[in-house]
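Module 6 notes. Inverse folding takes a fixed backbone as the condition and produces residue identities as the prediction. Think of it as a translation problem where the source language is geometry and the target language is the twenty amino acids. Below is one complete input and output pair. Work through it position by position during the lab.
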């Protein structure tokens, strides 16, 4: 084990592992930020959908309308 080639190889492998670990930690932090941002977007969308559904639950402002009522006259 006192072989200088073995020691150099082991040192290089350890250095490579440390570099990979650092990159992995950075990637994990980036992915964590993405997940947090996506969860915030999901929460916002859920609130917006709930707000959009609320008038339907409350009875709306008038009678139910058909999507055909919104078509321009040339259709």
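Target side of the pair, the amino acids:
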């Amino acid at each position: 084990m006192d072989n200088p080639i073995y020691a150099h190889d082991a040192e290089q492998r350890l250095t490579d592992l440390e570099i990979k670990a650092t990159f992995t930690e950075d990637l994990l932090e980036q992915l964590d930020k993405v997940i947090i941002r996506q969860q915030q977007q999901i929460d916002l969308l859920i609130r917006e959908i709930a707000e959009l559904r609320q008038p339907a639950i409350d009875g709306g402002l008038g009678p139910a309308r058909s999507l055909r009522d919104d078509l321009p006259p040339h259709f």
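Reference fact for the lab report: Residues 56 and 63 are 10 Å apart (CA to CA).
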